[in-house]
Design brief:
Mth169, Chain: A, 3 strands, 2 helices, three-stranded antiparallel β-sheet, alpha+beta, 27% strand, 93 residues, single chain, PurS-like_sf, flat
């Protein structure tokens, strides 16, 4: 079985209240190393068999048409991942 990961983030000009809330909470927890936090969405798409270029293309289309709102979000990653969640070298954005 193959797996494709799709990551979607708010466009840079869009306010991110959840990311801002997390970013302001981190220093109160003693975690002060990060200067900003943005929160997005992550989808794991499982397929029967190996991930092919055609399947990555379908995932890209799903990301652009269904999984994201193109007015306020960017699709930042569409690629094959292994069982441990590591990106495969053959992935495509």
């Amino acid at each position: 079985m193959g797996r494709i990961i799709v990551e979607v983030m708010p466009k840079p000009e869009i306010l991110d209240p959840q990311g801002k809330a997390v970013g302001s909470a981190l220093p109160r927890l003693g975690i002060a190393s990060f200067t900003a936090v943005r929160q997005g969405k992550c989808f794991h798409l499982d397929v029967d068999g190996p991930v092919t270029g055609e399947l990555l293309g379908q995932a890209r289309r799903a990301a652009e048409e269904v999984l994201s709102n193109p007015i306020i979000e960017d699709v930042v990653r569409v690629e094959e991942i292994d069982e441990d969640g590591a990106a495969s070298t053959g992935g495509a954005l």
